[in-house]
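Human: We require from you a protein record containing the residue sequence and its fold in token form, and nothing else.

Assistant:
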Amino acid sequence: MAARARYRSPVGTLTFEVGDEGLRSLRFGALGALRPPVTAAESDHLAATRRALKEYFAGKAPKLPRLDLRGTEFRLAVWRALLEIPWGETRSYGEIAARIGSLRLAPGT
């Protein structure tokens, strides 16, 4: 089970879910029932996520909460590459593909 909370943002309601290992998901909309934290780690991750969202929407470089990334090898590689992009900078899909060596990873892996 994971804790689930909502955040009212300038772009609408966001729903986020955390477990003991960190932030698991962040989605647009008021999705699913709210679940209070059961563990101290979940409580800490909820607070860290709220702080990061507040900083982000204030136009400041957020201190990202700990992330509990789950997915295929390909998705994990993409997400790790995205995390390396400095605040305020952008990268193209082609640059990300080159960074992860997309010829070695197929989307289904």
Q: What stands out?
A: The chain has two domains: 3-57, 71-109. The chain has three helices and three strands. Residues 71-109 form one domain.
